[in-house]
Amino acid sequence: MLIMTVHLRVPPDQVVVLRPHMQAVIAASRQEPGCMFYTLAEDQAEPGLIRAFEIYTDDDALAAHGASAHFQAWRAASGQYPREERTLYDATRRA
């Protein structure tokens, strides 16, 4: 199981423009066979900070998500904004 978090910094006035794209990628991603959890959330303390929380069954599921048309559409809509942090955890190998 892979757990990923991503932080995306967007000008606060552009969040409203991205919301329909966020809703579309969330809905489609949740239908992927290997996606266990997927959401994008607006940080309440930092306007313009969008946090992604994602859980996939394995590397293949993560790769399929990255190659999907809905994720590519999300990247096209949001790609000009910096990803400040991307962290990937492998929960398959537990302590």
Give the topology.
Blueprint: E1 2-9, H1 15-29, E2 35-42, E3 49-56, H2 59-67, H3 69-78, E4 83-90
Distance between the termini: 14 Å
Give the overall form: globular
Radius of gyration computed on alpha carbons: 13 Å
Query: What is the succession of H and E elements?
Result: EHEEHHE
Number of strands: 4
What kind of assembly state do the chains in view correspond to?
single chain
Low-confidence stretches: none
Class from secondary-structure proportions: alpha+beta
Could you tell me the strand content as a percent range?
A: 25-35%
Number of helices: 3
Mean pLDDT: 95
Specify the biggest β-sheet. 4 strands, antiparallel
Helical proportion, percent range: 25-40%
